[in-house]
Amino acid sequence: MSNSSNTLAEAHALDRADPLSPLRDRFLLPDGLIYFDGHSLGPLPRLALINQREVVEDQWGRQLIGGWNDAGWIDAPQRVGAKIAELIGAKPHEVIVADSTSVNLFKLIVAASRLSSRGTLLTETDNFHTDRYIASGAAEITGLKLRMVPRAEIQDSLDPDTSLLLLTHVHYGTAERYDMAAVTKAAQEAGALTIWDLCHSTGAVPLQLNRDGVELAVGCGYKYLNGGPGAPSFVYVAEHLQDRLLSPLRGWMGHAAPFDFTTDYVPAPGIDRFLAGTPPILSLAALESAIDTFDGVSMQAVWEKSIALFDLFDRLMAERCPDLVCISPREPSQRGSHIAFRHPNAFEICQALIDQGVIGDFRAPDVIRFGLTPLYLRFEDVWTAVERCAEIADSRSWDQPRFSARRKVT
Ligand SMILES: *Cc1c(COP(=O)(O)O)cnc(C)c1O
Q1: How large is the average pLDDT for residues 101-119?
Q2: How far does residue 143's CA lie from ligand 1's centre (Å)?
Q3: Which of 172, 223, 226 to mutate to test ligand 1, by most ligand atoms within 8 A of the CB atom?
């Protein structure tokens, strides 16, 4: 037997032994497509399709304005927040769903900056760009000085002027993961609050926000939570801070009594004050179904399969595609749930793979990423992706003009 057929047999054996394999049926995945892009946009959960029809036809269509009370729309941000809380180790009333991650970052940075008279907002030079952009705008408004330092220097850069530390838990490019408990503690000891961006962590790695002493966080609905394109984001504020923080976006939905139409703003108690405007009910319904798709699944089991998918991917790539260099940490506790490779022609290789039905994505300047999403990926998919990648790399079939055309979204 050739080595390829040996490794295929091994992948099949891993699939047969996989306790999560039945979960794949909870998603609608197009035939013939292998989807390694769940870290950018999760696929469609079957429940979301069924529920969306009901929300549109029965609730919006027939209940109209009555849906706010009768169909429970008005409580959706809290209800869905409580379901997310369960996945991230938080209390149900510590999480609320609203707006986008970018907007929620702005709300938390401005709100938290008012708790101290210190002058610096510290973040990582290579943090995700929206986080840095939002931080620069929020810094301008609050009068904070934005200080950006390389990842390795973060802890040593905490000083008596650090008001806030803003970090993304799992790095979008390399998948490197911070030690959440240790960094939060170091910042607390230096007298600073930490805001964690959990976009690449929620639904991907086991999280215990309460246990790890996390005080402030935001996260994404459309990546590993599979809530649909542009799904709303969530805000987490630890119970003890909730009544000390005020959102700078004082919309009526965050008011203590939105339907009293009072002249002055009175913040709602607790996490509710982080709402601004009217919640997007169709998007919230899709996100809720997506989170219900995790029912009965432990994040520990999801994470264990992610590790096994990574190990197989890494090993097969080293054998078959040695020119693509893995840049993700091999130690599981130091990474999230994707695997990234560097190659000077990563863009073209990614396009050639997409042409072959293997969907990964490219991040400038030279990184190709594959999301490892245990709810619907099979070990056989890893094997197929690596085989196709080897064919493309060995034959240089990526070297064609049609694979170098860049579109608006990469
Ligand atoms: C995906 C992602 C975002 C997305 O922000 P939006 O406001 O939803 O566009 C923000 N931060 C990080 C780290 C991300 O990975």
Answers
A1: 97
A2: 24
A3: 172
Say which residue the tokens 């601004």 belong to. 276
Number of domains within the chain = 2
The mean pLDDT of the chain is 97
Asked whether residue 174 carries a pLDDT value surpassing 60, the answer given is yes
Q: Is 265 helix (H, G, I), strand (E, B) or coil?
A: coil
What is the average pLDDT across 260-274? Answer: 96
Nearest CA to ligand 1 atom 10: 101
Give the end of a domain, one of 292, 320, 341: 292
CB atoms under 10 Å from CB of 257, counted, come to 10
CATH number at residue 251: 3.40.640.10
Active site residue 370: no
Q: Based on the domain organization, do 25 and 95 belong to the same domain?
A: no
Give, as one character, the DSSP assignment of residue 64.
G
Q: 308 and 282, same structural domain?
A: no
Active site annotation includes 222: yes
Instruction: Give the range of the structural domain holding residue 336, as residue numbers without chain letter.
Output: 2-31+298-396
**Ligand 1, atom 1: closest residue by C-alpha:** 199
* CB contact at 8 A, 376 and 224: no
- In angstroms, the CA 98 to CA 286 distance is 14
* 294 CA to centre of own chain: 15
Residue 197 is among the residues annotated as catalytic for this protein: yes
Q: Whose CA is nearest to atom 15 of ligand 1?
A: 199
Predicted local confidence at residue 86, as pLDDT:
98
| Cβ–Cβ < 8 Å for 367, 346 | yes
Q: Is residue 386 part of a domain?
A: yes
**Residue 127 confidence (pLDDT):** 97
Tell me: pLDDT of 123 over 90: yes
Does residue 128 have an active-site annotation? yes
* Pocket of ligand 1 contains residue 101 by CB under 6 Å: yes
Residues 212 and 253 in one domain: yes
For residue 410, the model assigns a pLDDT of 82
- Given pLDDT bands bounded at 50, 70 and 90, which one contains residue 406? confident
**Residue 210 belongs to some domain of the structure:** yes
Nearest atom in ligand 1 to the alpha carbon of residue 172 is 15
Same domain assignment for residues 178 and 262: yes
Last residue of a domain, one of 236, 269, 292: 292
Q: Is 369 in the pocket of ligand 1 (CB under 6 A)?
A: no
> Is 119 part of a structural domain of the chain?
yes
pLDDT for residue 1 is more than 80: no
Same domain, 335 and 284: no
Determine the straight-line distance between the first and last CA of the chain, rounded to whole angstroms. 39
3-state DSSP assignment of residue 166: strand
